[in-house]
Structure formats: structure tokens, C-alpha cells
Amino acid sequence: MNMIPPCPRLAVLVPCHNEESTIAAVVHSFRRTLASAVIYVYDNNSSDQTGARAREAGAVVRGEPHQGKGNVMRRMFADIEADIYVLVDGDDTYDAASAPALIARLLEDGLDMVVGSRLESAGDEAFRRGHRFGNDLLTGFVGLLFGRSFTDMLSGYRVFSRRFVKSFPALARGFETETELTVHALELRMPIAEIMTPYKTRPSGSQSKLRTYRDGARIMMTILTLFKEERPLTFFSMLGAGLAGAALVIAYPVVVTYMRTGLVPRFPTAILATGIMIMAFLSLAAGFILATVTHGRREMKRLFYLGIPALDRYKRD
Q: Which of 72, 118, 127, 284 could link 240 by a cystine bridge, Cβ 3.0 to 4.6 Å?
């Protein structure tokens, strides 16, 4: 078992909504594994006894009235002061015994985020139908747009440094928050890693809050929005190229007719093609302007990140 060096403040963060049947087991398992940690359960408008069960198990229970995992993450990251943060779902599917290895990797290598990947050790029965394919699709899409990613971008089991948590803007409202966490780390080029961890099926009586198609579509839109905001030159160049291509296709018959007869009989088509081409150049210009703005914004985020003291790197004797 990995030994964790002494750390002044260790917090386990558990966002919850209607996890009455599993939350006590989660709290007990992390209390056994991380005896020095304070376990915070944020009850997100549960209609069952989630909060009461968590409090009985020894957790510090707080509430967040704005519905959605992203809203809970924003509140937790803002309220809780610690040096190392362990984020885990309250459905008792993640392996508490893996937490020391995740924390040790964070400290040994001086990282800002370590993700507990579920994909190598989980059986197919642990994932709902279509979830493995959707995870692979979304993770691959982020890798395509941002250059690199994880094998399990949507994992809810992560360990963070204080630097990461206090520099993370947390703008998402729902399950898109995992995508935000990933892109935040990639765009600031933070030192990150991934460790394979066991993943269990949900206990009987526990139901997933994830709606496959609706939340999948929201995550895809979040990826595209973040791509536009973080890589505006590439985004608007692609948009401009598409508009320019459409303009050339529309203009082709008009140009051919003009070359043969010297006449332009279809003025509306010619005007439409000209307007679309102008939009293509405007899109490219917008990309250049926004790229400059994004570069300055990224510099400010980086400086704020560097202004937060780093954890001392742990070295084995």
C-alpha cells in the first residue's frame, strides 16, 4: 500500500443527489482509508435521507440549492480550504482503497491533477448501455481538438492540488463539469496523470442521475464551446473555410456563365456568394482578434495559478 506523507489538510469532496442507499458506505470507506481527511458531503436538493445518512456516518454535510453537479463543484471549490482535494461521486462505484495511490502520485511527481481511470479494470456490466462508447467518443473528440486527453475524461474520481482547485473557474452547471476540468488542465499545461482504478456496478436500489443522450449532447456542446473560447483562431478559421467553400460552390455556375457569355444573368446568386465570402473573411478576422484576447486571458489565468503556493514535492527516502 502506498504511504502518504504527512499533509496538513486533506479533504474528500462528495457531491450528492438522492444517494441515500450508498452515501454511508462511501463515507465509511474513505474514513477508513484516509483517516486524517475531512469528508464533505454536499447535498444537492435530495428528496431522500442522503444528508442524514452522511451525517450519521461522520461526514460534514452542507447543501447547495442550485441543481446540477457543476453548481455543486463551484460551491465546494469556493468554500473548502485544503492542500489536497479528493473528488468522488456518492454512488459507491469508486474504489476508496485507490485514494492513497492517487494522492501519492500527485505528491511524488508534483502534479496538479490525477484522474482515476475506470476503463481498464471495469467490466462491461459496470457501464450502462452506450456509456463506454460515448465516453470513448467524447474523450477522443477532446483529444482531437485540444491535442491530448485522458483515456477516461468523464471519470468522477480525481485528486487535485490546491493550485488547481483555486484557479478553476467552474462555469458548468451539470455533468459537463468533468469536461471543464480536463480542458482547464490541458490549456494551462498543468502537470497531470492518470491511474487505473477499480470500478464497481451501482448497488441495488441506487439509480444513476446521468441521462445518456441529453447529458451526452450537453457535454458535446460544452466541448465545442470550450474549443471556440480556448482556440478561437482555429475555430473561426474552420468556420471561415466552410463559408468560403460554400461561396465558391454557389459562385461557380455564375463565373462559368460569365466566362462563356460575358454576362451575369443571376444577380441574386452572385450577391449571395459575395455576401458569404465577406462573412468568411469577417470570421477569419474575428479569429485573429479573439486569439489575441484569449492569449492575454490565458496569461492572466496562468499568473493567478502560479500565485498559489505549490505543494512540496514528496520524495521517498
A: 284
Question: Is 24 a residue whose pLDDT tops 80?
Answer: yes
Same domain, residue pair 45 and 86: yes
CATH of residue 94 = 3.90.550.10
Asked whether residue 155 falls in the same domain as residue 260, the answer is no
Cell numbers for 144, please give them. Answer: 482531437
- Residue 309 half-sphere exposure, CB side, CA atoms within 13 Å? 5
CB 70 within 8 A of CB 180: yes
Name the residue range of residue 225's domain.
10-230
CA nearest neighbour of 222 among 172, 188, 277: 172
Nearest residue to 254 (alpha-carbon basis) of 242, 271, 241: 271
pLDDT in tens, 113-171: 999 988 655 455 555 555 677 777 888 888 888 877 678 888 889 999 999 999 998 88
Question: What torsion do the CA atoms of 20, 25, 30, 32 make, to the nearest 10 degrees?
Answer: 140
